[in-house]
Each structure stands twice: as structure tokens, then as C-alpha cells.
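Case study 2.
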Amino acid sequence: MHNLTPREIVEELDRFIVGQQEAKKAVAIALRNRYRRKKLSPELQEEIYPKNIIMIGATGVGKTEIARRLARMVKAPFIKVEASKFTEVGYVGRDVDSMIRDLVETSIRMVKQEKLEEVADKGRQLADDRIIDYLMPLPRKKSRNTRNPLEFLLGQGGEDQESDADQEARGRAIEEKREILRQKLARMELEDEMIEIEVEERNTSFMEIISGSGVEEMGINIQDMFGNLVPKTKKKRKLTVEEARKILSHEEAQRLIDLDEVYRESIKRVEEDGIIFLDEIDKIAGKESSYGPDVSRGGVQRDILPIVEGSTVVTKYGPVKTDHVLFIAAGAFHISKPSDLIPELQGRFPIRVELEALTRGDLKRILVEPYNSLIKQYSALLGTENVRTTFTEEAIEELARIAYEVNASTENIGARRLHTVMEKVLEELMFNAADMQGQEIVIDAEYVGQRLNQIVADEDLSRYIL
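Prediction:
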């Protein structure tokens, strides 16, 4: 997926997002440029920086979804953060460096999952070995050196030769039984058998609670410093073989992966492929106010600037360079405008794309066209109750019309209005579906109108309900 052409990237995004072709083209070019950069010489690679993007558009038009789908397409580390939750250094709140630390954590989860999948088969084999040990443990051999001195003094030493032979015979018999068990495990014949196993118990320590936010923000891992002083406790649990295999396979797979390699790979991915979606950037634009919650927004811009320009952020896993992280900023810019950002920050977002407001036709397409369309989602949910739901063309037209009109007469929240409308239309059906198994329900324009027309007609009521 990393070498998709811009046209193929747009086609893939079209499966999930309706319209917004200009924005799709911009992110497709940015993604393709990363692929092109990696084919250059190392010296030239360092000189080519990503062209960050600002998306301008009202809420619910697809800004976040475009960035999220883009990252998922190429399995790139991705996080979405709100610029408004950061504060200038010196104020109480999160500092901007935390977005890089969050991105590293996301990357570690991705890489660790990939490594666990690579060793899954080996982990399962080791888990099966442990299950056999629990079901049929091997006998412990007693050597002369570890023989009880009292037995020797009482003249029982001569019996050891016989006991050794007996032990060997018993050991061979147990080995044969263990092999039979191994074959049964392979044939899944023991899945419902109950066994008692020991599992590692992970308790949240006091150090983890402290290091969760405070000192951890400085990149110091208190858990690593002091957590190993307390030995891991184990507890016994009675489980079926099937459940025990899942737990033991995970434990064994965890032991097989090299965490240092995971951290190195994760940091490399962040530096080369990381994407940060910086939402609500318009909330930190505009003129400085001397009081109120916005007192530090100019300072937030100045703090964000070095991260976007390219700097090194210290994390507990190592230093991370942000030179080649792709930043996609977004905002409605109803009150402020992109030119209200400080000039230095504007210069770091050279590509600006305006997303179009959704038309009535767009809302109709959103209901049915995307791979995960709302109509498919609600039909599938009701299908779990064995209730078959069919939406007529007229009903879909009516849903789109009502959503568009409510957006026009109240706050425009874009495609999210469709969720509100769909929930209100299907509220009664979703409530009673468990008692309607085997029925087929046809949702037509009349069905939609009965549940929404009165609310839409009463403008004051629609403001509260829709």
C-alpha cells in the first residue's frame, strides 16, 4: 500500500468519503511525496520536508475522516489532537510535546502487534507445551547427591538403584502419555477440559499512578526505574484448555519479542511516516486576549512552531526528530481566518484546502454509497436481532432532505446530522427489535415523515431534539 499512486489513493478514499476531491488530492500528493522521498539518496532525503496541510471547512464535512483513512491505508502511526487543549509553557495543562509522546505510544502498539503476530505460531506451540506440563507433569529425578541423609543412615541406600530404574520406566510411560496429549491438543479434542494454570498478575502499582502524567511528561519512566524491584506475582486460575491457550500464547509471545527492537522500529516509523491531525487550530488563531481561557493561545502557537518546523522531543523510549512528521491541521475558521495565525506558523502549512459544505445530494450519497454507510450499519445492527430492514429510495431522499433542512435552519454540523436523524427515526424500532424476530420492516417516506415532520416543523423543538 505504500507505493499507491495519487489516483489510487483518491479512489481508495472515495470508498469511505463522499466528495471533497480537492482535499483528497492534497493528501494523496503528500503521501506519494513520502514514497518518492524514500527513493532518493540519504543526503537529499534529509533536505526534503513534508508540505503540511490546512483543511478549512465546517464540522462534519470529512476533515478528520480523510486524515484517519489516509493513515490507516498505509499503516502509519496517527493521532488526532485538539490544538485548544494545549497551553503555553508556564500554564496549567498539557504541553505540546505530549502529542509526539502520544504518537510514539501509538506506534509502539502498532509495531508490537505486528511482532506478536509474527511469533504467534511459536507462542502457541510453547503454550501447548505448558498446557501438557499442567496436565501431565514430568517426574522429578532424585539423584544421589540430593538423597535424604536419613535414608542413607537407615541403610536404604541400596534401594536407590531400583528406584532409578523405576523412575526411568515411569518417565518413559509419562512421555508416551504426553505425546498422546500433544496429538489430542493438535486435534482440538481437549478444548473443554478444565485445568489450573499459573498466570502473571499485573497490578497497577503506585509508581504507575504517579508516572501516568507528571514526571512521565518529562520522559522519565519511573515504572522502569522502580517497578522491577517488586517481583511479579503469579496467581492460579481454573480455565478451559481453550481459554488457557489464549492467555499462555500471549504470555509466551510477549517473551519472544525484543522490546528494544520494538522501540527502535516505533521511533523510526514516527520519524518517517508519522501523521498528526491537529484539529481546532482556528481556536488558537486570532488576536490575543488578556484574560479568560484564551490567554495563552498565542503562546500555544509559538510552542507548536518548533515541533512543526522540526525539533527533537525527548521521550522515555528515546529522542524523536519531528522534521519529517506530516501535520494536517483543520478548523472551521468561522470567526478567525488562517491569516490570523502567526506568520511563522502559516509558513509551515503551505498547502491550504477548503472543503465544501455538504449539499442535499451529498447527504443522500453518504447514507448509501460509502463502504460503511449508515444504512448498512443500521441494517446490520437490526439484522443481529433477526429483523430484516429495507430502506426505500423515497425514504433515503426524505432522510437527506430533513438533515439538510435542519442543518440550514440550526447549527450546520454536516454529516453528523444524519446520525441524529437516523437515531430518531429508528428509535422505536431499535427499542422493540428484540421482540420482533423474524419480521421484515420496510422504511418508506411515510415512516420517516411520521417520526420527524412534527419535530422539523417546530423550529424550537428541532433545536433541542435534532
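The CA atoms of residues 7 and 28 lie 8 Å apart.
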